[in-house]
Design brief:
It contains 11 helices and 12 strands. β10, α9 and β11 form a beta-alpha-beta unit. Helix content is 36%, strand content 19%. The strands form 2 sheets. A 10-stranded mixed β-sheet has the order 1-2-3-4-7-8-9-10-11-12. Strands 5-6 form a two-stranded antiparallel ribbon. The chain is globular. The protein has 352 residues and is an alpha/beta fold. α4 crosses α5. The structure holds iron/sulfur cluster. Iron/sulfur cluster binds next to loops.
Length: 352
Amino acid sequence: MDSKPLLRSLVPAEVDHLVADAGLPSYRADQLNQWLFERGALRWEEMSNLPQAVRTDLASRYDLTGLETAERQVAGDGTRKFLFRLRDGATVESVIIPMEDHATFCISTQVGCAMACRFCATARGGLVRNLDSAEILEQVLLLRADLEAEPPPDLGGRQFNIVFMGMGEPLDNWEEVARSLVTMTESKGLAMSSRRIQISTSGPAEGLQKLVTANPGVGLTLSLGGSTDEERKAVMPVPGRTSVAEAIDLTVRYAQRARRRATVAWVLIAGSTDDPVQAQRLAKLLRGKPLKVNLIPMNPLDDSDLEPPKEKDIQAFRRVLTDAGIDTFVRTSGGRDIAAACGQLRRRRQKS
Ligand code: SF4
């Protein structure tokens, strides 16, 4: 990797210090923060109100960008998928999913992933490295620029939500994710409400504990994988080291601290996690807790014998949960025609 750090790794308050340390007035820090985050500058030359000497000095010590677009695909349903190349040649995926009145940005936190979930294409190559907070943020800036340059015709507004649901386990890279959250939510950063941000985790205990302690106020989705410890371990071998009971308990604790309901994501795989017996056990586990359920029929994967569930089995599973009084939604991930399953685009690229 290039030896220069990325300037956007600094949170806005650190940018203030950097400018003060250079002996510059505080309005220069406001200008620089604005260029970095509000305007998302991708070239030093864009920072037209900063003196050339300041820009030259910054460029001698920092890199401004760490990502370039290697591929962009648009699906029939409007989903846009991006493959970004990092400075060391590694690649990560991000997605824009147009919703009714906003867009959802799905972003990555690691190159690859160590969690080995069986339904996931990212899991296949293992973990390569963590992303730096600037690399996490820059995905958002590039997706925002794409949305602004080409607003989807039937999208009501240009507001976006962020879900940490791309490649990688966010809580396995908590320090960098936490730094990116600071910049996303600070007024001198992206000024986003934490209500518009969602972390999706496979539920490693250590990571969940850090999240409960930090309580960043963002939404939490726990991917459970099974209704017993054995079932969870079979589908999600590494996160499965945290028992179902502990993963749910920590998720509930976070929901209580953050004062917002959390979500349990349940990936439905034919002949496995779509079993109504699992639905009954799941209903028992979740009843009365501040949790709702998202059922996610798995995306077909290359080189995998796992199959998506049948529609009637999805509905039967859902009925068991709703009959138990648990709010349950079926979420299909968009863009099937462009290999929307997380990690699939990168994997196909690597193979070719
Ligand atoms: S589903 Fe998420 S946690 Fe599991 S291997 Fe894939 S990227 Fe990692």
